[in-house]
Structures are given as C-alpha cells and as structure tokens.
Amino acid sequence: MATETAVIVVGAGPSGLATAACLNNLSIPNIVLEREDCFASLWKKYSYDRLHLHLAKPFCQLALKPFPDSYPTFVSRAQFLAYLDDYVAHFKISPVYKRSVESAEYDQETKRWRVMARNLGGGNGDVTEEFSGRFLVVATGETSDVFVPEVPGLDTYGGEVIHSTRYKNGKGYENKNVLVVGSGNSGMEIAFDLSNYGAKTSVAVRSPIHVLSREMASMGLFALKYLSLNTVDSILVFLSKLWYGDLTKYGIKRLEGEGPFTAKTNSGKYPVIDVGTIRKIKSGEIQVLPAVESVRGNEVVFKDGKSYQFDSIIFATGFKRSTNNWLQVPMLHFY
Ligand SMILES: NC(=O)C1=CN([C@@H]2O[C@H](COP(=O)(O)OP(=O)(O)OC[C@H]3O[C@@H](n4cnc5c(N)ncnc54)[C@H](OP(=O)(O)O)[C@@H]3O)[C@@H](O)[C@H]2O)C=CC1
Ligand SMILES: O=C(O)C(=O)Cc1c[nH]c2ccccc12
C-alpha cells in the first residue's frame, strides 16, 4: 500500500526543510524523505569544525524565519545547526529518515508521482516502500554523493586517504606532510586549517579559479539586485585583482573569460571564498602543487613530473549529484 500525500520532498537538507516549512505553513500535506538518520547531514555529520557560512546572514536564512538578531554576520556551523533545530521544531517538520529514494516516476493516468524508497532501518533485509503524491520536490542538492577520482596507483599508497567530508580538524596532523587534492572551497579551507594545526600542507590546484573575500562575495550578491551579472562580475574581478594581485607565481591562475558569478551560474563552478589560505600561500606556509598524476607507494607524482612523499591525502574533490540515479524524467536535463 502506498503512503499518500500532496507533496513528496526528497532530501532534508536546508532546501528540503524550507520547502516543508512553507507547505506546513499553508497546511499542505507533505512527506520529507531523507536517506540519512538526521536532517542537514552534510552540516551535522560531514563537515569540519571551523566551517562558517560563507555568505552574510541575509543570504542564508531559510524562508519564513530569519536568523536571530544575536547571530554574527557570518554564522558558524554550530549556530546554523541550532537555527535548523529551532526551524524544524517551529514548523513541525518530521522527515522520514533512513529512506533512500530509488525511483520516482510520474503516472500520466493518475497524475501522481510514484516514489519508491528503500527503508534502510528495516533490520533484517531492507524493505522497499511506496509513496504517492501529486507533486515531487527534488531537494537532494549538489552535494549528495562524494566524488573521489581514480588515481593510478592509489591502491599502493600506505598513508591515510580520506574525503573532505571525513575531515574534522587538524588534530593528529601536526608536523605531518599532508596533501589536499582540489581547490574548491572545501580544499582551500581544509588546507588553511591543517596549516594552523602545524601540518606541512600542500594543495593540488588543477584548474584556474576565482578567489574572492567573504565581503566581496556578499557585496556582489547584494549588488546583483541593482546591477547586471556582467557588471557585478567585472567589479568583483577588479576587486580581486586589487586585493590578491596576480597569483600565477604561486601556482594559481585566475579563471579568464567567465566572471565569478557567471561561472557559478553557467557551470556550477563556485568562486573560492578566501578565509586566509591565500595569505598562507603567499608566505609559503602552504605549498601549491599542480594536478595529481599518479601515486607510487607513499609518493605522489604530479603533472610537472615532480614527486613528493605524503603521510596523508585528503580528497577535497567534491561531489556527484544523485538525482539522475532515481528520477525518471527523460525530458529534464541536469548539469
Ligand atoms: N563555508 C561554506 O559555505 C562552504 C561551502 N562549500 C560549498 O560546497 C560545495 C562543494 O565544495 P567542495 O567540496 O570544495 O567541492 P567543489 O566541487 O567545489 O570542488 C572540487 C575541487 O576538486 C577538484 N577536482 C575534482 N576532480 C579532480 C581530479 N580528478 N583531480 C584534481 N582535482 C580535482 C576540482 O577542480 P576542477 O575545477 O579542476 O574540476 C575542484 O577544485 C561548493 O558549492 C562550495 O562552494 C564548501 C566549503 C565551505
Ligand atoms: O545565491 C546564489 O545563487 C548562490 O549560489 C549563493 C552562493 C553560494 N556560494 C557562493 C559563493 C559565491 C557567491 C555566491 C554563492
């Protein structure tokens, strides 16, 4: 027997919770299905201690409930989680946990979505459950499944290998040679954190990037209300050049041809919001290396042919979307 509702929301991250809050506020029946055993699992379980929202308060609060006035401009992970706890209680949201959605199809006859979810908490053997709703909301985000590239020889590596989602802080990395692979926001901040804990830190930067300060990014978002994307991007590139200078000699090339917000909008390439990493790169505390080519024992070989020994490798290589695995809508395309 299918469980019937008006709206099925897949994912209990911040977007899924905000959707459920708006629906509950209008007394529209809904069910939130969540694969994990808690809401906002990325924030709760899979992020590092020093994490703060990168964008100023007004850009990050969820629908219908602003952040408390006492919160600072850049909200910490603990504060964000406390806010979400309040939010879930206030809007009486009760996600159904440990439900991994395996398929969602729209039935043209009944005009309803049929969603099949595996109950991961079913004890002996998982059970598949059916949910039926008039509307489906996909709130599984851009960060649902971890991505680690295949690196030749990685299986011969004797040191520790983790994905950025397992990194909490630099305890235990003091004086260790640590390589962070990936120069997105996770990689750049984890490198900064490791260095603060006394790790000998390197970061492998494969592609050109935009680097902005938190203030530049928030100012840019605010300016988008009044100015075009291209104008805002030109201002941001100007400010970034002025503030950070040319980073080529440190191994970081600026992304040319597409401004920071255009790159985000067109190809999901987020600008790096600098939290202090660039200063450490300039001072030599953090070493920038090119793309990783292969691993040979405890040595990592880079694109320039050089190789170095590392005690640990942290793959901050991002995520894969999961939507295409279960959403059966041939006419929709997701990048
Ligand atoms: N405080 C905050 O609000 C924070 C927000 N975030 C956000 O979370 C999201 C995820 O960020 P993040 O975890 O950094 O992931 P991203 O996808 O943003 O970054 C992944 C990085 O890994 C690199 N990479 C991928 N594959 C390879 C490979 N085979 N070899 C070498 N490098 C590779 C990418 O380089 P390339 O471009 O060459 O593919 C890129 O630099 C983003 O939206 C980010 O902005 C993250 C941290 C903090
Ligand atoms: O408001 C948007 O469209 C966003 O994606 C916000 C956002 C998240 N991370 C960022 C990094 C730099 C600039 C904007 C964002």
TrEMBL record:
| Cofactor(s), names only, from the UniProt record | FAD
Any GO MF annotation of the entry: NADP binding
Q: Where are the transmembrane segments?
A: none
Q: Which reaction does it catalyse?
A: indole-3-pyruvate + NADPH + O2 + H(+) = (indol-3-yl)acetate + CO2 + NADP(+) + H2O
Protein name per UniProt: Flavin-containing monooxygenase
**Record's family?**
Belongs to the FMO family.
Q: Which SUPFAM superfamilies match?
A: FAD/NAD(P)-binding domain
Per its UniProt record, what PANTHER family does this chain match? FLAVIN-BINDING MONOOXYGENASE-LIKE PROTEIN (AFU_ORTHOLOGUE AFUA_4G09220), OS01G0273800 PROTEIN
Please indicate which superkingdom the organism of origin belongs to: Eukaryota
Major enzyme class: oxidoreductase
Pathway field of the UniProt record reads: Plant hormone metabolism; auxin biosynthesis
Pfam assignment, any one: FMO-like
The entry's keywords: Auxin biosynthesis, FAD, Flavoprotein, Monooxygenase, NADP, Oxidoreductase
